[in-house]
Design brief:
The protein is mostly helical. The protein is 68% helix and 0% strand. It has two domains: 81 residues, no CATH class; 189 residues, Hypothetical protein af1432, CATH 1.10.3210.10. The protein has 17 helices and no strands.
Amino acid sequence: MTEFYKKYMFDLPIIPKVVADLINISSTDNISSKEIENIIKIDPYLTSRILKISNSSYYSREREISTIKDSVTLLGLKKIQTIALLITGSEIMDEKIDDFFHFYWDSSLKTAFLSKKIAIETGKEVIQEDIFTCGLLHNIGQAILHKFSNEKYNKVINNYSKFNFNLNSIEIEEFGVTSNDIAGKILESWGFPKILTDTVQFNLDKNSHSQFQNIIDIISFSKTLYLNNGFNISNEKLKNLQLTYQSRLNLRNSDIEYYTDYLQNKIENIDFYNSCLDTIIK
């Protein structure tokens, strides 16, 4: 990583390598809950947060969960990985009540849940959890730039609609780099898998040619649908970008209506969605 990018690095209360090692575990790996515990317990802060969540009202249990091994047994690897990512993302931001915090997590979570839904219903069930994780992290670069200078990034957000929704141009003007680019570099330096570094770097880039392009297209479609319908900031540029990804995914107009309804009316009723919100806020 060059000196230019290093200035955007920062300290977290969790250890990024622990999270990276955890995320790099595949569901097909022959690894025990005890081995997963040995990875996580290196980080006391992450351990305490996971145990607290495991004992929350969202998860039924017959006794108190006191070890990470028991948490893995209760929740499963994928939920533990998701919780670790949510904790990582929430700790990047200092202010958890401002407008940016709401926009960032509303966008991240709904993009993740919608992307997983599309994956399941378009024959990509095998990679649905990978797609969910990519959706969860897809705009983490915005949080990184916001942490570096919340004043500057709030200016970016405020100017977003004024400059024809050209986020990259506004970010480069304020920071000299795009949020996607800085996210790709930092996650790579933390040892995150390429499927994630490519997704955060190339989402909404219709000219990208990643080996994970099919995943990036799903994330990008979900994000444009969110922006066009879920946050009321639609314009022709975003609509055309949505149509590009709609065509790549072979989605019909009736599919768009169906997924729009899911985005606007169904996601917030999912128990795990609310559990994710609880993880972020606390």
